Amino acid sequence: MTGDWKRRTQLVHTGSRRSQYGEMAEAIFLTQGFAYDTAEAAEARFLAPGEDEFIYARYGNPTVRMFEDRIAAIEGAEDAFATASGMAAVNGALMAPLRAGDRVVAARALFGSCLYILEDILRRFGVTVDLVDGTDLDQWRAAVTPGTKLVFFETVSNPRLEVVDIAAVSAIAHAAGALVVVDNVFATPVFSRAIEQGADVVIYSATKHIDGGGRALGGVICGTRDFIRKTVEPYMKHTGGSMSPFTAWIMLNGMQTLDLRCRAMADSAARLAAALHGHPALSRVIYPGLPDHPQHKLAMAQMGSGGTMVAIEVAAGKEAAFRVLNALDIVKISNNLGDAKSIATHPATTTHQRLPQDQKDRLGITPGLIRLSVGLEDAEDLIADLTAALARA
Ligand SMILES: *Cc1c(COP(=O)(O)O)cnc(C)c1O
To answer: What total number of domains does the chain contain?
Structure first.
């Protein structure tokens, strides 16, 4: 049975559906609709679709369902809904359960678009949103009052890699009756045990490690069958943010190597962080796998790994950071992450440019900060590339 398989086996096989041809590779059912034998059959399917009965690709599709079953299995979730992008997943997981008058408490250190949904969109519809320092449990305790409807945080924050204690925050949230929704992108599905640790809903941008080749946008919401099918699905299917079958096919291919890739990338990230630690041009090397990371013990207990991302702070500021970026050869300047190709990002001028200066200061998005997504290249080549570039700082 699928449920007894270990993760690497699930990543290759779970969810597969074969047509009458018995094809080995997952088929792309590139179809928006499905034909019914009779009018009565159409009526019956609209009334109550059975297992593996589809109506319209916005509602569900066989290739997309393979992806949903596979990610739900490795996440330890009952079900999943695949979305057109990571942001469609965040938006769906927040908008579907919330209504005017509800209260949300979220960690302040968030991906820019997540902040936009919380601070601009939800507030516009009468949802109260309070932001806290995600690593400070006292702030969570003070903010999560009885009647709080939902708690949201990135389990490892972007870009400074702060680690939030999923079990502790979930306990605080559940005591108040709140739903715990986590953005788990930086943790990756490979190092995640978020549901076991207390999260109710886990979101991924599949664009990142799940694709792993920087090819397609995608996302997924994992949770209980009740939440996914009764709360998320009606919202997503009527508002149009579903994943395309072609994207699901790309993601299914990516998942076969997800465990191998994330472990190799995390190994290289650990080696790179250790090699750069103490470099005279850097004021800080931030990596949850390093003993001097403020949540190092928590990261190792929660994920068993420091992950695939490293942040470095060039002491001399923006111009020096730009010289370092421009001197990189193997590592590309871009803003994706989780790609096989290593990527360097300057958050202050790109992904977090929109934030006002006081918010940048509060989140530690300094002029010298560079975020590194460590890819699948040889770690020695990456260390040599960074070391040579840092000589220009
Ligand atoms: C990339 C990212 C998203 C958004 O995903 P898209 O697929 O780009 O829409 C959300 N949260 C985090 C933490 C991300 O890194």
So the answer is: 2
User: Per-residue pLDDT tens for 132-141?
Assistant: 999 999 999 9
| Segments forming the whole domain that contains residue 64 | 2-255
Pocket around ligand 1 at a 6 A CB cut-off: 85-87, 90, 111, 114, 154, 158, 183, 185-186, 205, 207-208, 217, 219
> Which tens digit of pLDDT belongs to each residue from 281-320?
999 999 999 999 999 999 999 999 999 999 999 999 999 9
Q: Are residues 71 and 172 located together in one domain of the fold?
A: yes
Going through 133-247 in order, the beta strands assigned E by DSSP cover: 150-154, 179-183, 201-205, 219-223
User: Is the backbone peptide bond immediately before 291 cis, with ω within 30 degrees of 0?
Assistant: no
Domain end (from 255, 286, 308):
255
Q: Are residues 173 and 60 in the same domain?
A: yes
Residue 1 has pLDDT above 60, yes or no: no
pTM for the whole thing?
A: 0.97
Query: Which one of 160, 181, 184, 185 would you pick to mutate in the ligand 1 pocket, going by the greatest count of ligand atoms within 8 A of its CB?
Result: 185
Closest residue by CA, ligand 1 atom 10: 86
